[in-house]
Amino acid sequence: MPETWFIEEIVTDISKKISCASSTYAKNLVRMDSCIRELESLLCLKSTKVRMLGIWGMGGIGKTTLANVIYERLSHQFEGCCFLEGLKSTSVENLKAQLLSMVLSDKNINMGFTSIKARLHSKKVLIVIDDVNHQSVLETLVGEHTWFGPQSRIIITTRDKHLLTVQGVDAIYEVKVLKDGIDIELFNHYAFKNNPPPGDVMKLSHHIISYAQGLPLALKVLGCSLCERNKDYWMDTLNKLRKIPNGEIQEVLEISFDGLKDDEKQIFLDIACFFRGSDRTFVRKILESCGFFVVSGIENLIDKSLITISDNGRLEMHDLLQEMGWHVVRKASPKEPGKRIRLWEQKDISHVLKRETGGEEVEGIFLNLSGLEAMSFTGKAFSQMTNLRLFKIYQSNLWHTKGRMKCKLHISDDFKFQSDELKYLQWDEYPCESLPSDLGCENLAHFSMPHSHLTKLWEGQKIFGNLELVDVSYSQYLKRTPDFSRATNLEVLVLKGCTNLLEIHPSLGYLCKLILLNLEYCINLEHLPSICGLVSLETLILSGCSKLKKLDETALTDLPTCWSEHGNVQENSRNLDRIGEFNSYDSTIRHLPSSSVVLRSSYFTSPHCALASLIRLNLSGTPIIHLPCNLERLSRLQRLEVTNCTRLQALPVLPSSIEPLYASNCTSLELIVPESFCKSFGFAGALFGNCFKLRKYQSKMEYAAQSVASHVDPTTWRSIYDHL
Length: 724
Known about the structure:
Helix content: 25-40%
Structural class: alpha/beta
Shape: globular
Number of strands: 27
Distance between the termini: 106 Å
Strand order of the largest sheet: 8-9-11-13-14-15-16-17-19
Largest sheet: 9 strands, parallel
């Protein structure tokens, strides 16, 4: 018996090694050695501790393939092994029995009150749980590290990263799309059996590979379907893919979508159809106004590998996932786009508006006018769209047309939005002088009409209780702003480039939630009303307001940049401690007293610094003579720009937080307080090009700087500075 047992063990061990060497998965892998090595490194095979590893990624990315290869490479090193798959069609109890049966090599195992911990806590096991989508599966099968014997390894593959976090795995390996030529090799493996591609389909193969975007499933499915096919078949397949996604690929991808909650499905579809590539915060604000729980929704979509966040904070997703989202929307009404919830394709929107087939199902329309010669908007076409919440008209290739739309828009006299649910309205180059008379505004949160022909926004007091953003930048016919008194939640107001703007309604000064006010290059604006009520203001931009010389005197206690008729900034400012940026580039400012500092959009005062959050101060091109001596109070100031300030004579003590100082072409600059030289940055990050007088007094400054190195007497220097 002992000899028989020993022989069986040898045979079993050899069988495992042969199985590993001849593995189908191993044969089909293309240049994946680095991935395997990284996975084995994360498993820490030499450690005696139990270790759990999660393999995470989108559907079709190759998680199961990698797990199989690892399993077949390593299984001979363990006392018991199990690869569990097909979890969705099997109950948890059956999975538990299957796991114990495979690990213990006992087909007739009696479960009874047997627990996995009781049977496996002393065995060195390798267990793979594939494609997990419920926490209960992990809790039942691989609950804790202590359930298994020393050196055991548990591998879990899933599309949901959060499951791995809750489980407390020791490491998570994210499977990425194939690139750097590996995608080409994999496709060629299936399409051409690793032979050189025939010349007549070479270019077509590149289009197919580009369509797959590095997704192994797509590369395999499409490669197999095109194997041994002629050029015409390839052409037909490529043309079909541009209109109809491959069903086998879509089926796999839709599994992740089907597992979402209703709220998360709507967020995903909005991103796929409307907001891919948009700023995350921007999208959050819009979708929150639609009643969605966006913060948790986006996090869950990230965890489920359906979207990603780029380095600059933009929402992205794989091309095939976006295509899957489009497919889901189209399935609701394959033949009539007017019965779909979201419309984004030019031909579908043209169909709906021309034939007036839009129904109450329509919630979003994003129309790109590029390539269209004309488009009509009538009241009847929108009469049944009572649930419209997102509406955008734009042209993606404006830079080709020198910033002007070539599509002629025809707006009927009876045109209006019938929906009271409208939350987001953007219409670039809106062609009318006024808004539709019955514009539903109670729920509107985002109003954007840059480059419009508007001469006014609305008459009288209108209730805009949810309005957070108004952008009418470069609306050159706009002469006055409306009454904002009922827009109590307004946070952003952009009037940049409204060159004929003459009057701003006094109600602006009482928008207590306003964070950003941009009046850049409002060249005909002469008067800014009191803004004493803007207690939340963080950014105020007045650059290029060449005629703005006087502000309402009632604003002097709160405004960062208060000019008198002589171009000087007035004293007193207390309530703008949130302002982070102030830009007065090319303004008429000549003097900044010790109580205030003008920035691209903010200032500070003494003795209490009201601009504690100020990060950037841009005074370039202004006729300023000197800066306040208490500038050093701005402890968060990182960047100071005084380029082309030709009348600037001296720089005071600067905060140590400043890194770059831009002071080129300050032709009158003579003195720099040496305290700054030592305390701040030693001018290592300063630019003083063409500061001719500074060169003249260079020796005097060097001597003073040497004195400061041993002893700093700020009083002396400030005395000199104040007499300039």
